[in-house]
Here is the input.
Amino acid sequence: MIKIIFLADTHLGFDFPLRPKKEKRRRGMDFFTNFDVVLSYAKQGQADLVIHGGDLFYRTLVPAPIVDRVYERINDFAQSGIPIVIVPGNHESSRLPVSLFMQHPNIHYYSKPQVFNFSLKGVDFDIAGFPCIRKEVESKFPEVVNEIQPHLRKESVKLLCMHQSIEGAKVGPSGYTFRKGNDVISIDALPADYNLILSGHIHRTQILWTKNETPILYPGSIEWTAFAEKGEDKGFYEIDFDDNMECTYRFVKLNTRPMVDVLLEKEVYSLATLKEDILYQIEDLPSDSIVRFKMNNTANLALLNVKLLDNIIPATMNYQVAGFRDSFASRPSKLS
Ligand SMILES: [Mn+2]
Here is the structure.
């Protein structure tokens, strides 16, 4: 049996300040922790290959110490003897920062449409892929497919790896569905030569199908990156090929922090009644919750300030206030 581990959207470096102005719980470690869990799962389960579907990092210009922190882990993993293939995603501007850590024979990443050839337990695998196409993928994709085609071997098992939105993919609490468009690959455009298609980019895990019934696997992100993903299972795929090269796959769940909405619904609050309401509502929450406060009457929003929240929210939690994007925060932490 041949085992492939497929993960994506690790967004490493997110909320991971190098010189934090105040000491408080950050979400950054949550992502590193789950990344480490997936790599050790692959090691312990003696996987034959790991594929990362892109958005390794949280953005394009990553501070060098964070790049090193990530690449050290990948280099370490490569030294265990398992090859790893990485698709550069949109968050790394379709190319990964250059580093000596990545110059290991077991580390492969796409710098153009290309095919990495492997012999896994004596079976030929062609792992085709291309860096994320951020604009006009609909018109550029057929050319990419043609560029890859001549490099595929006749008798190999073939996987196509990418970091794109594909027609039919769903995101968000109301299940927004990607339809045909300039920045979407349509189902009709997907080639029929592959045993499996693997993609990052969509943070909700899901499976789509090509016209000839090839599965398209989205593993989703390894932790919640926003409240829009609240309630979604997070994890990665374990893909097995049996002796007849029949393929099965299963989603392996990762632990995630509890994400909770706290609604402050009174029409009128004083500082005292607001404090009381918040304390009452968070009392029974898991201690590592990520809380979003939603103020019903926005006129009361001024009361809901950092000073108040830092004072009453336990150090083990993160919080944000609805309407303030990406404002994860918590009171000064005695834990870190
Ligand atoms: Mn992403």
